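Section handout, structural biology tutorial.
Before the tutorial, make sure you can parse a SMILES string by hand: atoms, branches in parentheses, ring closures as digits. In the record below the ligand is zinc ion, and the chain has 294 residues. In the tutorial you will relate the predicted structure tokens back to the input. Do not try to memorize them.
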Amino acid sequence: MTAKVYFVVNIDSDPDPENTPPNNDAVMEKYRITKEILDDHAGGKGTICIHTSPMYRDRFFREPFMEFWKSWVDGGGELTLHPEEDLYSTPETRLESGTYYNDIEHMDPILRAQARFMEDNNLPFAAYKGGYHGLTKNIVHVLKKIKINIDLTCAPGIHWPEKAAHWAEAPLEAFYMSSEACWKKAQKGEESSMFEIPFGWDGQRRDASPNRLLDEHYLVNEFSNYEALCRVWDTIVDRAAKADSPQIVSILCHTYAMKDNELSGRCANILDYMTRHEGVPVTAREAKKIYDEM
Ligand SMILES: [Zn+2]
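Predicted structure of the complex:
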């Protein structure tokens, strides 16, 4: 038996100050390369993050980026709201410990303002993705209010409580979130309006304790290699076949890597491999619809 595996290309657009010169042209060039790869190897289906942070609160909500987001959506792609509150802190705002994701008074107005701005520009967000895999019930509550009902933060197996990442026991495939905890699948009969699409994972841990960071056991282009990515994909396809049921996962990649020929080539190659082996690229909204109709 075989069963399809639907995948969402989950693109993190952080400009990465170490790898990307700070000017807009340099960032934009990488975004364009990413779009070409997505168009040529996944039919334009994928969701790209719009970054907001203490360092760049509104930078990506202005031109030339607004025009690019429009072309992204016109080409069949979707947009993800992505606050990077800790990693892109300024010296004045950097926390000594903990995370802004636990501070809903800080998060609430940011999420609302950025979502409203994009809605007013007819480019509403389809999904949300936290930095460091951080997500809280309070954030989910706000997301529902601002009509974002798909989350792409979940990294099953990852446990980093200081960053609000509690995914050690999370399901390996898409699920509706329980009101009890972000990592928990809603019980049968429990009403849930938050759809979670986790990163693809082969279920293997490097050592006994849950990891903090993604590695070659995940579908993550930049922290792995082609052979490992193929192996993880094959494991997910096997899982779907054994369960005799389609699965939905995401594959993570980062725009900062896309001027590196090896990394952008790897991204194109793994997308080709996935579509040759039972994979169907879908947007996050399409994934939710497929799950709803399953
Ligand atoms: Zn990020």
